[in-house]
Each structure stands twice: as structure tokens, then as C-alpha cells.
């Protein structure tokens, strides 16, 4: 298995755990076939090609064509500069987007006093069955994207209609991504359910702690659940909001968490 030296630093720079392991394995030798790289890095062989493709796109490895394809690591000094440059570019985009959002929200804020009912687009939902109903409606309405933060405890079970909605969305060219809480891996039923969604086309990652339950659909429709800061898990309030500006902000927050998360374990 690849040396763990530098693993945490590569994760901090934005690589997934699989990507970091494969790059560290390639650094130790002049070249590897994909199968050799998977074995050396200790990752599932069926994942090695998409991991190598991602590393190549990031400028960290290169393909060495031949009768048998081999991959080599790019000089770490150059490769790490590629990662840092990508972060600089991402930060520049965020600054530009934040400026634009500030301008747009400033207009909304300035005209807010003219709104006769500024909360028309907000619905507070407290009944658990109503929350399940709203969540199902959001999944069914998705046309481009579903982004979900899955925080324990879950209010839905196996949710076959939700799996069908993910399959429909992905088949139509949309995307579905979910960040699960690591504690959920302790329950085999949760893991089996996550794998059903992944089989339908959902991309899944795991984070030690997910801050809240959240679903953002098509960048504009939002369902979030906020725990009572005193009662904790014993009490929560769900809020459904349809607002593109809020959706934009929450999509950016989701992307930040997604970049820190690691791949969901294979079945």
C-alpha cells in the first residue's frame, strides 16, 4: 500500500482519499499499470480508471502509451503547484461570484420594505410526515440537480420513489450528489440504502460531521432542517424556501463540504 507520507496534506489540497493514495503510489515508482497502481494504493480495482482520469485532469499524472498503458506521477513540485493554482482560480471565481451576489442581494434588500408579505416563499414544516412529503416532492420535481446533506437521524426509510427519481434525473443528464454523515456507516441498513441510491446514479461522499439536513434542487428550491439548539435531536424545525439567491449560497456551501469529503465506501 502506498506510503501515508503526505496523505493528509493531499486531502487538504482537495484530492479524495483514493486520488491521494494512487498519486502517492505512483510517486514511489517510475510507472505502474492501472492494475498495479490499484494494488499498490490499496483501492478497489474497478475504481482505478476514474481515479487515474481525475488525476490526469488535475495535472498530477500522465499516461505513457504503449502495448500496455502505464501511468507515471508528475514531478511533485509541479503537481502540487497545479493543485494550488486550481485553488487560486477557484478563490478568484468565488470572489467574483460573491461580488455579483452582493450586488443582487443589495437590490433585494433595498426593495424589501416594499414587499407586502416578504415570507411568501418560506414555509415552516414541523410535522415529520409533512417533511417526508415535501422532500419527496422536491426529488420528483428535480430537472437538473439534487444536492443533499444527509444528517442523522433520518426521517425516510428505504424510499424507493426517491431512488426512482434519482435514476430518472441522472438518465436525463442531471446530477445527484449526497454527503452522508460518517456515523451513519455504523448501521448496515443505512449503508444498504445509500448503495441503492448510488446504484441509481447518485454520487456519494462521507464527512465526519454534517452540519444540517439539507436538500437543494435545481439551485433554487431548498428544504433544510434546523435542530433546536437546546433540545438537540429531540426537536427540529424544517423550512422550505424557493429562492434562487439563497439556493446559490447553499450550493456554494455544499460544494465546500463536498470538496472536503471522501468517497463513500464501496459495497
Write the layout of secondary structure elements.
Blueprint: H1 7-12, H2 17-27, H3 34-41, H4 48-57, E1 61-64, E2 70-73, H5 76-111, E3 122-125, H6 128-141, E4 145-150, H7 160-171, E5 175-181, H8 188-199, E6 203-207, E7 213-217, E8 221-228, E9 232-242, H9 244-260, E10 262-263
Parallel strand pairs: 4-5, 5-6
Antiparallel strand pairs: 1-2, 3-9, 4-7, 6-10, 7-8, 8-9
Helix pairs in contact: 2-3, 2-4
GO molecular function: DNA binding
Protein name: Putative DNA-binding transcriptional regulator
InterPro entries: TrmB-like, Tscrpt_reg_TrmB_N, WH-like_DNA-bd_sf, WH_DNA-bd_sf
Write out key terms for the chains shown:
2 domains, WH_DNA-bd_sf, Endonuclease, Chain A, eight-stranded mixed sheet, DNA binding, globular, 10 strands, alpha+beta, Arc Repressor Mutant, subunit A, 267 residues, DNA-binding, Putative DNA-binding transcriptional regulator, two-stranded antiparallel sheet
Verbal overview:
The chain is an alpha+beta fold and 267 residues long. It has 2 domains: 7-80, Arc Repressor Mutant, subunit A (Orthogonal Bundle); 118-263, Endonuclease, Chain A (2-Layer Sandwich). It is 47% helix and 21% strand. It has 9 helices and 10 strands. The protein has an 8-stranded mixed β-sheet, with helices on both faces. A two-stranded antiparallel sheet has the order 1-2. It is globular, with a radius of gyration of 21 Å. The two termini are 21 Å apart.
Amino acid at each position: 500500500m502506498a506510503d501515508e507520507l503526505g496523505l493528509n496534506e493531499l486531502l487538504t489540497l482537495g484530492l479524495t482519499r483514493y486520488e491521494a493514495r494512487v498519486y502517492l503510489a505512483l510517486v514511489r515508482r517510475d510507472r505502474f499499470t492501472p492494475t498495479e497502481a490499484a494494488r499498490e494504493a490499496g483501492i478497489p480495482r474497478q475504481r482505478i480508471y476514474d481515479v487515474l482520469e481525475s488525476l490526469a485532469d488535475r495535472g498530477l499524472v500522465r499516461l505513457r502509451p504503449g502495448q500496455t498503458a502505464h501511468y507515471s506521477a508528475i514531478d511533485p513540485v509541479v503537481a502540487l503547484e497545479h493543485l494550488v493554482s486550481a485553488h487560486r482560480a477557484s478563490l478568484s471565481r468565488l470572489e467574483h461570484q460573491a461580488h455579483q451576489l452582493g450586488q443582487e442581494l443589495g437590490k433585494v434588500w433595498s426593495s424589501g420594505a416594499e414587499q407586502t408579505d416578504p415570507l411568501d416563499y418560506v414555509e415552516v414544516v414541523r410535522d415529520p410526515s409533512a417533511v417526508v412529503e415535501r422532500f419527496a416532492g422536491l426529488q420528483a420535481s428535480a430537472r437538473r440537480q439534487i444536492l443533499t446533506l444527509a444528517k442523522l437521524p433520518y426521517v425516510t426509510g428505504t424510499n424507493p420513489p426517491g431512488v426512482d427519481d434519482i435514476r430518472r434525473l441522472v438518465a436525463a443528464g442531471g446530477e445527484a450528489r449526497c454527503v452522508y454523515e460518517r456515523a451513519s456507516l455504523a448501521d448496515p441498513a443505512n449503508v444498504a440504502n445509500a448503495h441503492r441510491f448510488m446504484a441509481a446514479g447518485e454520487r456519494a461522499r462521507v464527512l465526519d460531521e454534517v452540519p444540517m439536513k439539507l436538500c437543494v434542487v435545481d439551485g433554487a428550491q431548498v428544504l433544510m432542517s434546523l435542530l433546536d439548539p437546546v433540545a438537540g435531536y429531540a426537536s427540529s424545525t424544517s423550512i422550505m424556501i424557493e429562492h434562487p439567491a439563497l439556493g446559490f449560497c447553499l450550493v456554494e456551501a455544499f460544494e465546500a463540504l463536498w470538496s472536503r469529503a471522501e468517497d463513500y465506501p464501496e459495497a
